[in-house]
Amino acid sequence: MQLKKNKTTKAVFFILAAMFLIVFLIEFLLAYIPAQMSEKHTNEIVNLYFQDTKYTLEAFNESWQPSTHVYKLSSVAGHTIPVYYICQDEEYENKTIILVHWHESNHMAMYPLAEVFLENGWNVVLYDQRAHGKNTAATVTFGYLESLDLKQVVNFAKEKSNNNTVGALGQSMGASTIAYYSGTEHANEHLDFAVIDCPFSSMYDEIYWEISQAKILLPAKALTSFGSVFNNLIYGYSFSDVDMVEQIKNNNIPTLIMHSKVDRKCPYYMSENLFNEIPHSKKKLITYKGSEHLFSFWDEQDRYNTEIFSFIEKYIN
Predict the structure, then answer these.
(1) What's the domain range around 114?
(2) pLDDT at 8 (0 to 100)
């Protein structure tokens, strides 16, 4: 009887140990993998995106490559921020839009939107976010430290344009980067407007959403919380530190938020939460009803463009 009891005790111990190791590995990967990126991977993702949307990269390069000027900014953190400044005939003193790309892509993913602004007489500034494309930062922080890169790009665009109008438009993680930055004193002083398309409202909420949608047998809230602890141990910040809702409470600039009701990557309620916390009336929430994540621009392009330029004209002289 004692032998059977000992065997049962060992079996339980090994099962619990195995479960602990599995959970430990899941939490480590949950913190580690999303923060890692490579130029090769981002190029592959952009190529797939263009295949899905039937967008022709060659046509863009033929039209706008001669007007594209490449710069390298040295970030305050020591990494390089590659900037692609598109203006015709070296006319930098012009209204300028900064376009901020989404997670796993790079600046080229914003070429379709760049064309829209270029054809409407704007200059366009594109750049690679942390650890994406040719940006040499080691890790992605989902809008947290990316906001500091954006701050430097805004300074650069303001200087080059001789303090002309400068706005920012981002999609998904790019939108969340702008949302986080928009609550800073620097944004309130130097950014003239923000357009935020299909953002997530916080890193914690987004990772919790992803886990819950994956229907993992383990509880999503516990996994997210432990993942946040691991993220803090590895990178020095927790998921809850990347809170766009809290940041946007200090936003004082005209802000347009756009989101689809059926977005399954960043759910619509996240934009509602952001919109409700903006403490002024210079804001608007545009709702699309049938587009997947990132695809409102493609599905309702005329409305998408009209809403953006109407908003800008309303608040920017």
Answers:
(1) 39-202+242-315
(2) 54
**Concatenated DSSP letters of 112-160:** HHHHHHHHTT-EEEEEPPTTSTT---S---TTTTHHHHHHHHHHHHHHH
Q: Which residue has the higher pLDDT, 14 or 108?
A: 108
Q: In this structure, is residue 13 part of a structural domain?
A: no
Higher pLDDT residue, 51 or 20? 51
DSSP alpha helix (H) spans, the chain: 2-32, 39-53, 57-64, 111-119, 146-160, 173-182, 185-190, 203-214, 220-235, 244-248, 268-277, 296-299, 301-315
- Which domain CATH number covers 104? 3.40.50.1820
281, part of any domain: yes
Check whether 230 has a pLDDT greater than 60. Answer: yes
- Whether 210 is covered by a domain: the verdict is no
Question: What is the pTM for the complete model shown?
Answer: 0.90
Number of domains in the chain: 1
Taking residues 114-126, what's their average pLDDT? 97
Structural domain contains residue 224: no
Spatial distance between the Cα atoms of 249 and 282, rounded to a whole number of angstroms: 13
Torsion of Cα atoms, 10 then 14 then 15 then 20, to 10°: 140
Q: Is the pLDDT of residue 241 over 50?
A: yes
Res. 29: pLDDT tops 70: no
Half-sphere exposure of 35 (CA within 13 A, CB side): 23
